[in-house]
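My current task is to audit a protein record that another person submitted. Alongside the sequence sits a line of tokens, each denoting a local backbone shape. Please read both lines and tell me whether the tokens look consistent with the sequence. Do not assume that whoever made the record got everything right. Thanks in advance; the entry in question is below.
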Amino acid sequence: MARTDIDFPFRIDARGRTAAAAYPDHVRQMIEQVLFTTPGERVNRPDFGCGLLDLVFEPDSVELAAALQVSAAGALHRWLGDVIVVDSLQVEAEDSTLRIEVRYLLVATGEVRTDVIEGSVAQ
């Protein structure tokens, strides 16, 4: 039987139960949470997150891209290092949108996945 976890964001499904997500989808959702949560946003874990969206409006430069990649890779390793092994990570910023492509190994299943995650700041 395939492993399922709680869907994020939390919601109730059509049956009136807690919505579930397949394990690979749940891991992708956890990656999004780490990347787009600003440190200090969670009361009981003030250092959780990466805060990539805080840097969306910074001037685009090679240095900023490198800093974003190092920050994101470090946060994923810190918070999800027991769940995934990051193989590569690319961060691109355009206007108010961040596009992150992450290739990783799911430790529990041995599956290699590549996900593209986008986030934007509401204006």
Notes: The chain has one domain: 4-120. The mean pLDDT is 84. The longest helix spans residues 62-80.
